[in-house]
Specification:
CATH topology: TIM Barrel
Order of helices and strands: EHEHEHEHHEHHHEHHEHEH
Strand order of the largest sheet: 1-2-3-4-5-6-7-8
Number of helices: 12
Number of strands: 8
Strand content: 5-15%
Oligomer: single chain
Shape: globular
Bound molecules: phosphoenolpyruvate
CATH superfamily: Aldolase class I
CATH architecture: Alpha-Beta Barrel
CATH class: Alpha Beta
Radius of gyration: 17 Å
């Protein structure tokens, strides 16, 4: 397996943090720090920060992502944002199915699938989050839970489109808790995700998909995690909010 064939992606997930002026300031600080990165660098930011973020990173190697998108093109969906709206302002990535959306906002595997198809149809790149609860890991059903989420998220998605899709393995018990999956645990599940993709599509397609790890990744643990064969990058929450904490992760993925 040749990991170098896949695009390593380090993406920040800012969640509900940073006002537009704070977003501009953080990105301006980050731009010179990651300008020589040998991986894709993405900042997924709150909706109201998107326009200023896209403007701020123009001409740099940083890409901007949203943290969600609705599956309908337009219509009576108060409070929602469409893929066309994101595309028009220059957004390139969209985080979908994050565990916080599943936990607090009624996101289901079915809506993740609808969003994934809409995002791909708009020519944007979905970062589809999957991961088990602590209880599910204790019951030894991690691989089943994650395989189910992957299969449902990708229902009716073509092989061509799945190659453009990023999957983020985020064990729910490791998100924002300071508790990280060990590098071996991360590798085991990322490899299982790739095996699921090979069964759903074929080996060549599975080999092309970028699979990130997310869950308390930081400067201290990123080297070991990112060195694993099936870990092609990271989705970073807390450590993406401070330039000095995000930059070492980008540097580790660039090695
Ligand atoms: C996340 O929210 O996707 C995440 C991985 O958060 P943290 O890095 O803070 O655990």
């Amino acid at each position: 397996m040749d990991k170098s064939k896949r695009k390593a992606i380090i993406a920040g997930n800012w969640k509900m943090n940073k006002t537009p002026s704070q977003a501009k300031a953080l990105l301006e600080e980050l731009i010179p720090m990651v300008k020589d990165a040998d991986c894709e660098v993405v900042a997924c930011v709150p909706y109201v920060d998107l326009a200023v973020a896209v403007e701020t990173v123009k001409g740099t190697n940083i890409k901007i992502g949203a943290e969600n998108a609705h599956w309908e093109k337009s219509g009576a969906f108060t409070g929602e944002i469409s893929t066309d709206m994101l595309k028009e302002i220059g957004v390139e990535y969209v985080v979908l199915g994050h565990s916080e959306r599943r936990q607090y906002f009624g996101e289901t595997d079915e809506t993740v699938n609808k969003r994934t198809k809409a995002v791909l149809a708009a020519g944007l790149i979905p970062i589809v989050c999957v991961g088990e609860l602590l209880w599910e890991r204790k019951c030894d059903i991690t691989d089943e839970v994650v395989a189910r989420q992957v299969k449902l998220a990708l229902y009716d998605v073509s092989a061509e489109d799945v190659k453009k899709t990023v999957i983020a393995y985020e064990p729910v018990w490791a998100i924002g808790t300071g508790e990280t999956a060990t590098a071996d645990q991360a590798e085991e599940v990322c490899a299982a995700i790739r095996a699921t993709l090979a069964k759903l599509y074929d080996a060549e397609t599975a080999e092309a998909v970028t699979i990130q790890y997310g869950g308390s990744m930081n400067a201290g643990n990123c080297d070991e995690l990112l060195a694993k064969t099936n870990v092609d990058g990271g989705l970073i929450g807390g450590a993406s909010l401070v330039a000095e904490k995000f930059q070492p992760i980008v540097a580790a993925a660039s090695k």
